[in-house]
Write a structure and sequence with these properties.
By secondary structure, the chain is α/β, with parallel strands linked by helices. Helix content is about 35%, strand content about 15%. It folds into two domains: about 130 residues, 3-Layer(aba) Sandwich (Rossmann fold); about 220 residues, Dihydrodipicolinate Reductase, domain 2 (2-Layer Sandwich). The structure holds nicotinamide-adenine-dinucleotide. Nicotinamide-adenine-dinucleotide (NAD) binds next to loops.
Length: about 450
């Protein structure tokens, strides 16, 4: 009897300690999705009326904006209707460029913080293209949609969860496209690799890596009003994640059959940027928030992992990493671009004279080139030469703009949607929350509010 009593107490103690452990294991910082307002549905696969001529207003003409205007002059069926920047000289310079190409002058808006409201309200505009500093992106994007325009916003389009939800809700209410201008999705290696993934060459993708590693010392002093240094100074976390995470999420079909579930971030102390401020500006900054190097790990619903890194100060070669590990192969872009494949996946036609290739090393250059030719993405084929001539980071910026206009002209769903914008930008506020809480896991909400499994893969409408 005594023996049984002892066993009973022992059993209860074990059960209690196990359930406490389970409790401890289950702790996340929750970031629940706000309920969808009544009368509103998702915008997955959104199709709008075709626009044979797309009339564009550009807002923000600093370092990035003028190149976008120039690229659009190479696309048939685009009218550049309005140019807007706080600074008069920026607007005049771009209008001169249009005139020098024999194009009509665009309407000019400058000189006032709120002048962009006149540009988004113009009745003869279909698309508002936003390339201002980060903090102006969301108010302009929301107003543009309310004024009946589609909107394309530079990276990162939004910085807080409230702003991300506001863009989603406005797009769902107005039924207007709202996309982030994430050009890195359209680089040649990334698109070719995406095509390989979609054709099964790398097997199931289980892990992806991406980054923004780019010393910004030559640029810090050139941003309007020091907006970029200010943001880094006052925010911990990965403040520029979209170039790294965008192409990885496309390869993993995020919100098209899988979803991001949670993240954990770890950063280093801040050395490089405070040293820059001291050396170049004589400023002693002791509370610089953004660490030199930030790593964020994400797990998906389907059991995949993603590593995203951010570093804008260390002396390192430029890198977006872009790496995919699959069950049958491996792709890597930086610092060495290459593919490694399981022997069974190596097409003898592509391998040519090379024998006994294995995944233990990258495929030889010749084989890699043959493979990339074979798997060139269909959307690149017709415009590759033109994209390389017009340029914009080697051509990817042109492919992005071309695809945006192509889909709007034909009334097709765009390649990226507002939920991509949300997922990729959410790393900014959520990594900050994780870091401010000793790297605790933070839940990433389902921005589609229940529809993440409805589409089955990333598609580029033709
Ligand atoms: N996708 C890429 O590869 C890439 C590359 C560079 C920059 N960017 C992004 O482009 C955006 C712009 O960056 P940038 O380097 O051109 O910065 P910038 O500081 O050179 O330009 C910002 C411009 O916004 C204007 N502006 C500020 N407030 C305004 C207002 N109220 N109304 C109208 N204009 C206003 C400023 O006058 C300035 O000309 C940022 O989001 C940046 O992250 C993306």
């Amino acid at each position: 009897m005594k023996h049984n009593w002892f066993l009973f107490v022992f059993f209860v103690a074990i059960t209690l300690s196990w359930s406490c452990k389970k409790e401890a294991l289950a702790q996340f910082i929750e970031t629940p999705a706000p309920p969808r307002p009544a009368g509103q549905t998702d915008v997955l696969g959104l199709r709008c009326d075709p626009l044979p001529t797309v009339r564009v207003a550009f807002i923000g003409l600093g370092m990035r904006g003028p190149g976008a205007v120039e690229r659009m002059t190479h696309i048939d069926g685009v009218e550049i209707v309005a140019l807007c920047d706080l600074l008069e000289e920026n607007v005049k310079k771009v209008n001169k460029m249009l005139e020098s190409k024999g194009l009509p002058k665009a309407k000019e808006f400058y000189g006032d913080e709120e002048i962009w409201r006149q540009a988004t309200a113009l009745p003869d505009v279909d698309l508002v293209y936003v390339a201002t500093d980060w903090k102006h992106h969301v108010p302009i994007g929301i107003q543009a949609m309310k004024d009946g325009k589609h909107v394309a916003i530079e990276v990162p389009s939004a910085l807080t969860m409230d702003d991300i939800w506001a863009l989603i809700n406005t797009s769902e209410q107005t039924r207007k496209h709202c996309i982030q201008l994430e050009n890195c999705v359209y680089d040649f290696f990334e698109l070719t690799t995406l095509n390989m993934v979609q054709q099964g060459l790398l097997g199931e993708i289980i892990h992806g890596e991406g980054a923004y590693i780019h010393g910004l010392q030559p640029y810090w002093d050139q941003y309007w009003n020091d907006w970029r240094m200010d943001y880094n100074r006052t925010h911990r976390g990965d403040v520029y994640p979209t170039h790294g995470i965008g192409p990885v999420c496309m390869a993993m079909n995020i919100h098209r059959g899988d979803k991001l579930n949670f993240l954990v971030s770890v950063d280093t102390k801040a050395i490089g940027n405070p040293a820059f401020l001291k050396e170049k500006r004589g400023e002693e900054v002791t509370d610089f928030r953004n660490g030199d190097h930030t790593c964020t790990l994400i797990r998906t619903e389907k059991g995949k992992s993603i590593l995203i890194e951010h570093n804008v100060t260390s002396p390192r070669p430029y890198s977006r990493m872009f790496q995919l590990t699959g069950t049958a192969g491996f792709a890597n872009k930086y610092p060495v671009s290459g593919y490694a494949l399981d022997q069974s996946e190596i097409d003898p036609e592509v391998a040519g004279d090379y024998q006994n290739l294995t995944a233990h090393s990258f495929l030889p250059q010749e084989v890699k080139e043959a493979l990339m030719e074979k798997y060139k993405h269909p959307i690149v084929k017709d415009i590759e030469e033109k994209a390389k001539t017009v340029g914009g980071h080697g051509g990817m910026d042109f492919i992005m703009d071309y695809r945006l206009i192509y889909c709007l002209q034909k009334g097709l769903p765009l390649d990226m949607d507002v939920y991509d914008l949300a997922e990729w930008c959410s790393i900014i506020p959520l990594s900050e929350i994780s870091l401010d809480n000793n790297s605790m896991p933070v839940r990433i909400p389902d921005f589609t509010r229940g529809a993440w499994n409805r589409l089955d893969k990333v598609t580029f409408a033709e």
